[in-house]
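Re: that backbone. Tokens:
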């Protein structure tokens, strides 16, 4: 998306998950997009995030968990290359928030017109 949109955890785009098919762009080598979802289900759930990179571009998906007092790195999704679908998943207790970061893998992995798609599911 455009610069200054969801560029940090503090300004992350809030997902009212489960969410499917949010599509936007990484429009510069410095652009990153953040998304967040808070587990308000009252139960422990297993979540999965999938990132579909645009054809010919390779974007990376990273996840960070916020416990309410500290941030914990969940890690990076497996890399399935340009146009591929990268996935990451884990468990999340009630009240915790998962943050998802999307960015180009290399400085040339961006486009003002090619859309990536992110999905978040839980059960």
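Recovered sequence:
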């Amino acid at each position: 998306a455009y610069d200054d949109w969801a560029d940090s955890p503090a300004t992350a785009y809030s997902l009212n998950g489960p969410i499917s098919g949010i599509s936007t762009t990484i429009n510069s080598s410095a652009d990153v997009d953040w998304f967040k979802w808070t587990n308000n289900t009252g139960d422990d759930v297993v979540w999965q995030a999938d990132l579909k990179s645009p054809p010919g571009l390779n974007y990376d998906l990273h996840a960070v968990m916020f416990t309410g007092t500290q941030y914990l790195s969940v890690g990076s999704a497996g890399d399935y290359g340009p146009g591929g679908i990268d996935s990451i998943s884990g468990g999340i207790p009630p009240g915790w928030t998962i943050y998802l970061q999307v960015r180009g893998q290399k400085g040339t992995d961006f486009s003002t017109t090619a859309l990536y798609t992110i999905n978040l599911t839980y059960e």
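The CA atoms of residues 42 and 94 lie 5 Å apart. The two ends are 28 Å apart (CA to CA).
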